[in-house]
Specification:
Length: 955
């Protein structure tokens, strides 16, 4: 072990600690290169997946059902086709979207005819002959109201102009010479269809083959006919039927609404449409004023839903009221015709579903936020496994740790985002390709910094990796989905208060979603217009929320950074520790025992306290009075109380412990499980705070100077705290650098450490720790504790799991090391305590019961000899009688199958007397074996522990 020289090198400075941690992390990440490569490549894989899905969708949309329709117009021999034409006239409404339409067809304006009639205000329409009829089976109703009932009813009676029989024959016979004549005749009447309208007017489904065109008349007197005609080259082959229009008066608009609601509920129940054609409220219409509200039917659906394009059927409804008003004012010959409806011309387009625009904000928000669980679980893992605490106990300060950790997370996030943007641009994703790269860089840089700070903040709230992982993934997917389902609606609502949007965007996931939403919108707009996407000048657009997002995230990053580090520096406190401080200002910070229960037990304790423990307290008080603490460990009246929960009483784990140790001593703490040894060690290494009292380590106060104490101690914990992917040599190099070892001195110390713990041979020092056995890990933990010449070393059962040879070698290492430092060691092995410890303290029920060297304790508490003798079973009583004659105070402590053990007080029996008794027994009966021994340290331990428990029962 590298223990040459007695001077302390001191703790490595900030830059050297940064260098040590950086080299350790580089080694750690190098062995985790596959994981890191997978994280960095993840966005690339997501982009590849997105492109693959987009390719499959495009390939599906290239099939005939989604392309402009074609038909054979000139048949050839044997069923072949000599000429094929493509166009709107051969397309379905879906196919029409992909057709070039230079001269859109002109369709007659239709009304939406309900699919069935029903009773209205007690008037029953004609019953349907076919229960499954798709068209009307009787009159279709129009509800009327208005302040001037007479005028309103007159207007209602003129809503459905009658068609002469001669005109009906012309329409139905197809005798018209042009499509203009056909449309002119239909503009004089009210044509309708029960077929749902298309989303475009390039194809009118109501005039497709095998459909029925209804002509609504005041009275029907002619039979159905079939019509074959054309409109701008579009063939029309429909059935023509007459349907009676029935105007019905209602007292007011509330009654109309009541009937609409009844009809709509009935329609939903029967999974068809509302039973009314329309509703007209003529309000204050007079001969000098035309004022009307038109209610149109939007409840038509094949699947009990609403069709978004039924508004296309409104033009004819408005024209009906306008024409009726003109006839009242100007006479029967006055009219205002709606001859046709048509779309604007358009070029041929390919039907496309742009997934990058459709899913941009949601998909990319998920992708970027998936780094949050990676960062959070890494931080919580080091806290859960106490690896960071182990580094801190060997002198690593918070500054270097967070600097290197922040730099690593920032590098990983930057590589992640750079690959994301570059690969997305390479494969042609518009959200990356069209928007200004400077804006994207600034947006992503601010967000990844905010995400790192947010992860550090969350890490202070979790102590379990599983819990942190689950909560972080819930946050990632929950915030993205809420952004898509909720935040998006508020963004698109121009009336929603901007302040509330800003408040919602305080959640980092929402601000990220808003940024991607703006980038996607500008990318989609630029793609459609053939221009670039978002530029710097666009940030001043009031409708653009990117500027707000950038400012908000920057402020959050700056404010949350100190808050995250402040919470991290108080890991043992509740996250709301500021409120705890306020609530405890007026309460005592120290634990006070219950005086009512203390009076009797204090007197008993004062009477029964051991002289050696009392003397130790006097030494502590004298050292503190003389301020002689520079080369000593002094524990002064240390107490630790664990507060009771759920009605349980407080647990007093350490009861006023006082101890003084000088340099070069190895002090052993012996005690049963639950005695308080671990609580004492945890207080000394800073894991828990003392409830009362303090300790001085070479002049440094445990309550105030814990950071400086960490610079001068080494710790071998009960459980090995190691990185599985690092080698033993890399562990020692890292901790050696923290102890300010550099260059040749560092290499020499590491080599000597590996040799001293038998990890140098066979290349074990250069193998990953996850390949070590339990004993090898234990030896490495001891080597870590001793490297760098610490002033104080705490070892918690250092030889656990070692074979005899390795244990003896380890003992030799500890013996050499204690010459330059003070060692506090806990163990359950009495042999180890006798071999290593200069002084031993037996710790029971939170107190030292005795202190001294192993020889002193055996001499003080070992006033007996143990005689073990084996005879035949029938001679046991006779042997016991001989021992009673030898020593009346002798105690039989064991007896089974002829073997007996007797405890003989030394003050009554000399060793030659024991030999005489055994010789006398051999003369009376056969003695198969016998032995006599002085008291061992184990016997002392058992006796002291038993007496202490008896004292606890008494007190």
């Amino acid at each position: 072990m590298a223990t040459s020289g007695c001077r302390m090198r001191g703790l490595a400075r900030f830059c050297r600690q940064v260098h040590a941690l950086l080299l350790k992390n580089l080694s750690f990440q190098r062995r985790n290169c596959k994981t890191n490569a997978g994280i960095a490549a993840f966005p690339v894989l997501l982009c590849v997946l997105l492109v693959a899905i987009q390719t499959m969708v495009d390939r599906e949309l290239d099939r005939p059902p989604f392309q402009c329709g074609c038909a054979c117009v000139l048949a050839g021999p044997k069923g072949s086709c000599q000429r094929t034409e493509c166009g709107v006239q051969y397309s379905t409404p879906t196919q029409a979207l992909g057709c070039e339409v230079s001269a859109p067809p002109r369709w007659p304006a239709l009304v939406q005819v309900p699919a069935f009639p029903a009773s209205v205000r007690g008037q029953t329409t004609a019953p349907c002959n076919n229960a499954n009829a798709s068209g009307p089976c009787g009159p279709v109703a129009v509800l009327l109201t208005g302040r001037n009932r007479g005028l309103s009813q007159s207007l209602g009676n003129l809503l459905f102009p009658a068609i002469p029989a001669s005109d009906y024959r012309r329409i139905s016979s197809g005798a018209m010479n042009s499509s203009e004549e056909y449309r002119d005749e239909l503009s004089k009447v009210v044509p309708g269809s029960s077929t749902l309208p298309a989303h475009v007017l390039f194809v009118e489904p109501g005039l497709e083959p095998n459909q029925t065109l209804y002509v609504i008349q005041p009275k029907c007197s002619w039979p159905p006919r079939n019509v074959s005609a054309s409109s701008d080259g579009m063939p029309i082959d429909v059935g023509l039927e007459c349907v009676q229009g029935l105007p019905l008066w209602c007292p007011n608009s509330s009654v109309i609404n009541h009937h609409f609601i009844k009809g709509y509920k009935g329609a939903n129940k029967r999974r068809k449409s509302n039973e009314f054609l329309a509703g007209y409220d003529f309000l204050d219409t007079s001969k000098g004023r035309f004022h009307v509200h038109v209610s149109y039917n939007s409840s038509f659906s094949r699947d009990n839903g609403r069709h978004s394009m039924t508004v296309l059927r409104v033009a004819r409804l408005v024209n009906m009221a306008s024409t009726a008003y003109l006839k009242v004012r100007q006479g029967a010959n006055a009219e205002m015709r709606v001859e046709f409806l048509k779309e604007m011309p358009k070029a041929a387009i390919r039907v496309r579903l742009d997934l990058t625009t459709l899913l941009a904000a949601l998909f990319f928000t998920w992708t970027v936020q998936l780094l949050l669980p990676v960062i959070l679980t890494y931080l919580v893992y080091e806290k859960q496994q106490k690896l960071r605490l182990m580094m801190k106990m060997h002198g690593l300060k918070d500054g270097p740790y967070w600097l290197i950790s922040y730099f690593y997370f920032l590098s990983l996030s930057a590589v992640y985002m750079i690959l994301f943007v570059l690969f997305g641009s390479f494969i042609g994703l518009d959200i990356f390709r069209l928007n200004n790269y400077g804006i994207q860089f600034f947006f992503f840089f601010i967000y990844i910094n905010l995400q790192i700070v947010f992860a550090i903040l969350l890490a202070s709230l979790f102590s379990s990796v599983k819990t942190a992982s689950v909560i972080s993934y819930i946050y990632v997917f929950g915030s993205s989905l809420l952004g898509e389902a909720l935040l998006k609606l508020f963004i698109e609502d121009a009336t929603f208060p901007r302040l509330w949007l800003v408040i919602m965007e305080l959640v980092p996931g929402f601000s990220l979603y808003r940024g991607f939403y703006e980038l996607a919108e500008y990318a989609a707009s630029g793609n459609h217009k053939g221009k670039s996407g978002m530029q710097w000048g666009d940030l001043n657009d009031p409708a653009n929320g990117m500027k707000d997002v950038l400012v908000l995230m920057s402020i959050e990053w700056i404010l949350l950074l100190p808050v995250a580090f402040l919470l991290d520096r108080r890991p043992a406190w509740h996250p709301l520790f500021l409120f705890q401080i306020l609530s405890t200002k007026h309460s005592s910070p120290r634990w006070r025992p219950d005086k009512s229960k203390q009076s009797s037990s204090t007197k008993i304790f004062a009477d029964m306290i051991k002289d050696d423990v009392f003397l130790e307290r006097k030494v502590v008080k004298r050292s503190l009075k003389e301020m002689d603490t520079r080369n000593m460990i002094i524990c002064h009246n240390l107490k630790k109380v664990y507060r009771g929960k759920n009605g349980n009483p407080d647990k007093l784990a350490v009861k006023g412990l006082s101890l003084a140790l000088s340099k070069g001593q190895c002090f052993g703490m012996l005690g049963p499980n639950g005695a308080g040894k671990t609580s004492f060690i945890n207080m000394m290494i800073g894991l828990v705070r003392p409830t009362y009292g303090t300790a001085y380590i070479h002049g440094m106060d445990l309550r105030k100077d814990m950071t400086e104490i960490y610079e001068n101690i080494g710790v071998c914990p009960q459980h090995d705290l190691l990185w599985g992917t690092l080698t033993g040599r890399e562990h020692l190099m890292f901790y050696g650098r923290l102890k300010n070892l550099t260059g040749a001195a560092l290499i020499k110390a590491v080599e000597e450490s590996l040799r001293s713990v038998n990890l140098y041979h066979c290349g074990f020092g250069d193998k990953s720790v996850n390949k070590y056995s339990g004993g090898m890990k234990r030896r490495l933990s001891v080597a870590i504790a001793l490297i760098g010449n610490p002033k104080v070393v705490y070892m918690d059962e250092p030889s656990t799991g070692l074979d005899t040879t390795s244990r003896n070698d380890l003992w030799n290492v500890i013996k050499r090391a204690k010459q330059e430092c003070t060692i506090i060691l806990t163990t359950h092995s009495m042999e180890e305590a006798e071999e290593l410890c200069d002084r031993v303290g037996i710790f029971v029920s939170g107190n030292f019961q005795c202190l001294g060297t192993p020889m002193e304790l055996k001499a003080r508490y070992g006033g007996t000899r143990i005689l073990t003798i084996t005879t035949a079973v029938e001679h046991e009583e006779e042997m016991a009688r001989l021992i009673a004659e030898l020593s009346p105070s002798a105690t039989k402590i064991y007896g089974m199958s002829g073997t007996q053990k007797f405890e003989l007080p030394k003050r009554e029996v000399r060793l030659d007397g024991v030999f005489g008794a055994v010789s006398a027994a051999r003369g009376l009966f056969p003695v198969q074996g016998w032995g006599v021994a002085d008291t061992t340290l184990e016997d002392v331990f058992i006796r002291v522990a038993k007496d202490a428990r008896a004292f606890d029962v008494l007190s």
